[in-house]
């Protein structure tokens, strides 16, 4: 990878992906629940994708109007892998204590019932906010921040988190791996000189979801995901004993 | 941890440490090679320390003089855990392509026969330099950069790396773990909602070394080392199957 592609992949893109063939436990395709081809499956089996979520935020309709002007709505710029979700054209400035800030944090759509800022721990440290590891939506008692847009600003009293690792999957994927919504899995990433096994990967199951692990930039950079040669998702045990 | 302690631990300190009781394979103390108490041992057994190395650089005597003025030497500011090594008072600016820079990168002493800049991948991306994962000193063919000090600047033609994970240990530690210089080990970090097993941890054995794993800030932040409750170093297998 050259410096210019690093630049492009990190600065201009919101999400980097590593798409690999799943090394799941079942060696033969599992029949989906009445569907010939569940979302995201290729050739009758799940296709594991690992994506790095760069820092981003979710906004309420009300906050979109305050930050970008009355009548404003989010403008989709790029579709995410999960159907119906997108990176918006809009970005906000996130301001922490002692006037530290992140100048341009991408807004993801669609809007939500609450606003939330998702940072990697490195971002959180540079912003001076102690963001706890939380699953999306679990923001009670988390720190707040100030969001600044071209038309106004919003004081969030809570909602700054480090998003916990998770894997989106549909129910056919659940059957394939023998897991259900809320279970924890392990993800092994084989990468030259910096292989890692991530534990505590929460299963978030939904009928329409496509199999995709979300890790943050610290996690993606810890294993240099761009150079990974193999990714394996496991129900229990990280598979290291077989290597 | 409050925002102010994050600030202090990351901005002002060079190295953060997690000191834990070793969960090594031997349940009884191993006799050291003729020494009553090998370096770093406590109560007759190794005491595993995991340290985060923030970005830093090593300089030659010649480069110290160019950057800080004729006759300059490194001034120790803070001793590192390994005897004889220190964070110097001096810092340099590291400049990458397209005028991106890291304004204040700590110099570690003592000086070396070659200058080298060690970054986390996140640093490397923000600097616009594609730093490969390398073990210290293995800098052939790596990218260069410009170092700027108060008295002058140096163009490094190579030497910018992401330091590969490694563990310093003495020969009594080697005996304890059943490894030798150059072997690879695994380090499991148990941390709330973000446990990780790091593979590819290189053994760097030396008579005077104290048992200490060095990971970088991305790796430390990926597992939120500050909140870790348990660290385990293993010769083979990450121990996950026993959890």
TrEMBL record, chains A, B:
Transmembrane segments: none annotated. It is an enzyme of class 2 (transferase). The keyword Zinc-finger does not apply. GO terms for molecular function: acyltransferase activity, transferring groups other than amino-acyl groups; metal ion binding. It is found in: Bacterial microcompartment. Its EC number is 2.3.1.222. Pfam families: PTAC (PF06130). Its cofactor is Zn(2+). GO terms for cellular component: bacterial microcompartment. This is Phosphate propanoyltransferase. It comes from Rubripirellula reticaptiva. The lineage of its organism: Bacteria, Pseudomonadati, Planctomycetota, Planctomycetia, Pirellulales.
């Amino acid at each position: 990878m050259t410096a210019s592609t690093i630049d492009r992949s990190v600065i201009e893109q919101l999400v980097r992906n590593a798409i690999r063939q799943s090394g799941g436990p079942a060696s033969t395709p599992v029949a989906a629940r009445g569907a010939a081809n569940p979302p995201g499956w290729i050739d009758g089996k799940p296709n594991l994708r690992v994506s790095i979520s760069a820092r981003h935020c979710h906004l309420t309709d009300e906050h979109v109007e305050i930050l970008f002007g009355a009548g404003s709505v989010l403008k989709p710029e790029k579709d995410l892998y999960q159907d119906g979700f997108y990176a918006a054209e809009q970005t906000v400035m996130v301001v922490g204590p002692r006037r530290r800030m992140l100048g341009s944090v991408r807004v993801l759509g669609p809007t939500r019932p609450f606003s939330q800022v998702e940072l990697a721990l490195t971002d959180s440290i540079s912003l001076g906010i102690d963001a706890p590891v939380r699953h999306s939506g679990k923001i009670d008692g988390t720190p707040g921040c100030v969001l600044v847009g071209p038309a106004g600003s919003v004081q969030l009293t809570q909602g700054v988190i480090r998003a916990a690792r998770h894997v989106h999957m549909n129910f056919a994927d659940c059957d394939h791996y023998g897991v259900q919504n809320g279970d924890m899995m392990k993800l092994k990433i084989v990468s030259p000189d910096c292989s890692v096994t991530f534990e505590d990967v929460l299963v978030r199951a939904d009928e329409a979801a496509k199999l995709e692990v979300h890790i943050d930039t610290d996690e993606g950079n810890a294993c240099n995901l761009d150079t990974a040669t193999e990714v394996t998702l496991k129900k229990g045990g990280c598979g290291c004993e077989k290597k």
